[in-house]
């Protein structure tokens, strides 16, 4: 039987639906086609010609600022002692706090001359030099795995300090506890001298850069104000160093006696500065009471630093000879002490900054 032939009318009925589907097919080809081609990774594809994005840092870093996390990781690779690491952690926390405060000021247009930003840079330079993170091979910055205030390591960089320390040790005027206290004062003074030299070098570099910068605007007045502020800071630090040396010389010759107001070097410095600032008698007495609280906070921090070092030594011993459960218990105790020491270190530095700020404001009011 012959198959039926389709007439012209039948072809018209079939082509109508195809004509309706044709735009949809073209749209699908346009959408799918480029993706399919790119998926093959041809040399002209987006993936081949756009740079890859750097992997994002995993959450849970020690700090919110990437550059501070990098410094923290570098310090851990340097194998600083636990006490030094806890001190660095507190310094970086303070740096982070100050940088976020500066960003808020900048957003409000309150650092037009850039002085606060420059001070942040100087402070970071001091931290880098203090902990040996500035790339220089300076053995002084990297401590061994022992408490840095131990009197056995009685090396001082300044020959004058060496002479005073030797005189004090052999004078017979100091008990062993007083010698420990005096040694902390010597170390504190030496740290102030180092920070002064770092600031001096940073300032010299900054001035050299500014002299070579060509600006279309007349910024000479702003630069002059900024440099004056920087030099004033250096002058204040140098005055503090000279006062500190005079005090060490007096104590080394005479001994402590019975009239010692405070024990801790940082508190002694603050009290000497406060007595020469423009405080009323009532304000000075209030400041004295606050210094007593501050000294108690420092002593508590010192206690935890010593406990942290002891725990670190014990953990190393247990890891060599102890069982897994014993190691686990010691790790937990060490982690707890580490966090507590970091927390107290930050509180001490923040309190020190607040007290120093009050003295500085009183001095400016005097002027």
Automatic annotation (TrEMBL):
Domain of life: Eukaryota
Region (Disordered): 37-62
TM region(s), chain numbering: none
Signal sequence segment: 1-39
Coiled coil ranges: 277-304
Domain Alpha-2-macroglobulin RAP C-terminal: residue ranges: 156-367
GO molecular function: heparin binding; lipase binding; low-density lipoprotein particle receptor binding; receptor antagonist activity; receptor ligand activity; very-low-density lipoprotein particle receptor binding
Residue ranges occupied by any Alpha-2-macroglobulin receptor-associated protein domain in the UniProt entry: 27-138
InterPro entries linked: A2-macroglobuin_RAP, Alpha_2_MRAP_C, MG_RAP_rcpt_1, RAP_D2, RAP_D3, RAP_sf
Keyword Cell inner membrane part of the UniProt annotation: no
Keywords, sorted A to Z: Coiled coil, Endoplasmic reticulum, Endosome, Glycoprotein, Golgi apparatus, Heparin-binding, Phosphoprotein, Receptor, Signal
Compartments where found: Cell surface; Endoplasmic reticulum-Golgi intermediate compartment lumen; Endosome lumen; Golgi apparatus lumen
Biased composition (Basic and acidic residues): 44-62
One annotated Gene Ontology cellular component of this protein: endoplasmic reticulum-Golgi intermediate compartment
Record GO biological process: amyloid-beta clearance by transcytosis; negative regulation of amyloid-beta clearance; negative regulation of receptor internalization; negative regulation of very-low-density lipoprotein particle clearance
Keyword Coiled coil assigned: yes
A UniProt-annotated Pfam family: Alpha-2-MRAP_C
Xref: PANTHER family: ALPHA-2-MACROGLOBULIN RECEPTOR-ASSOCIATED PROTEIN
Entry's family note: Belongs to the alpha-2-MRAP family.
Subunit field text: Interacts with the LRP1/alpha-2-macroglobulin receptor heavy and light chains; the interaction is transient and coincides with a reduction of ligand binding by the receptor. Interacts with LRP2/glycoprotein 330. Interacts with LRP1B; binding is followed by internalization and degradation. Interacts with LDLR. Interacts with SORL1. Interacts with LRP1; this interaction is followed by rapid internalization.
Function: Molecular chaperone for LDL receptor-related proteins that may regulate their ligand binding activity along the secretory pathway.
Name used for this protein in its record: Alpha-2-macroglobulin receptor-associated protein
